[in-house]
Write a structure and sequence with these properties.
The complex is a heterodimer.
Chain A lengths: L3 E3 L4 E4 L4 E7 L7 E6 L6 E5 L5 E3 L2 E6 L4 E6 L8 E8 L5 E3 L3 E6 L1
Chain B lengths: L3 E4 L2 E4 L5 E7 L5 E8 L3 E8 L6 E2 L6 E5 L5 E5 L8 E8 L13 E2 L3 E5 L1
Parallel strand pairs in B: 2-11
Antiparallel strand pairs in B: 1-3, 3-8, 4-5, 4-9, 5-6, 7-8, 9-10, 9-11
The chains are: A mainly beta, B mainly beta.
């Protein structure tokens, strides 16, 4: 089983739609969880950290389920500018962060 | 607000040539990282430096060497480039490495180096 797994997509949605991505991780001792966003041919950038109680940043909501070892990202009222690849990131015991391969989102008008 | 700066942005090498990718950060971070990103493979850690004076292997270290020159700079060297090393290379830094719930292990990335080895 890969350490961090994501559905690669692509998810094709119209503007204004709500879309959700899930990610599963294998290391039950993981403590840090993030969603990064990567635009085509650009570097990854932090979208938001994910906390056990769940957290929201504007149209974005992240949830963590430790018992099932999965993380979710919900995007409401999708914008064209949300089109990107979303990377699920989990810390590995020790020092390294483990990146999922990403889920591609395409928002169309 | 330079953040993490990588040079060069693009490079074409012939098989067997050597080169060094440079990375510098101005955020006073302790930890620095080198990744490669290939289609369908995601980001893979090559080497990292948890603090000045230390370096450790990541998932794919073969064919690479690194130097943590000082707190700001972390370079990646390809001694004898191979076509399999054609990739996009990203440098990143964080305040510190390790498991953390305080955000201090959040990594910030440079713009990348696109390397082709012919």
């Amino acid at each position: 089983r890969k350490e961090v797994e994501q559905d690669p997509g692509p998810f094709n949605v119209p503007e204004g739609a709500t879309v959700a991505f899930n990610c599963t991780y294998s290391n039950s001792a993981s403590q840090s969880f993030f969603w990064y966003r990567q635009d085509c041919r650009k570097e990854p950038k932090l979208l938001m950290s994910v906390y056990s109680s769940g957290n929201e940043d504007g149209r974005f909501t992240a949830q963590l389920n430790r018992a099932s070892q999965y993380i979710s990202l919900l995007i409401r009222d999708s914008k064209l500018s949300d089109s990107a690849t979303y990377l699920c990131v989990v810390n590995q015991a020790g020092t390294a962060l483990i990146f999922g391969k990403g889920t591609t989102l395409s928002v169309s008008s | 607000n330079a953040g993490v700066t990588q040079t060069p942005k693009f490079q074409v090498l012939k098989t067997g040539q050597s080169m060094t990718l440079q990375c510098a950060q101005d955020m006073n971070h302790n930890s620095m990282y080198w990744y490669r990103q290939d289609p369908g493979m995601g980001l893979r850690l090559i080497y990292y430096s948890a603090s000045e004076g230390t370096t450790d292997k990541g998932e794919v270290p073969n064919g690479y060497n690194v130097s943590r020159l000082n707190k700001r700079e972390f370079s990646l060297r390809l001694e004898s480039a191979a076509p399999s090393q054609t990739s996009v290379y990203f440098c990143a830094s964080s305040e510190r490495a390790g498991a953390s719930g305080d955000g201090k292990n959040i990594q910030y990335f440079g713009a990348g180096t696109r390397l082709s080895v012919l």
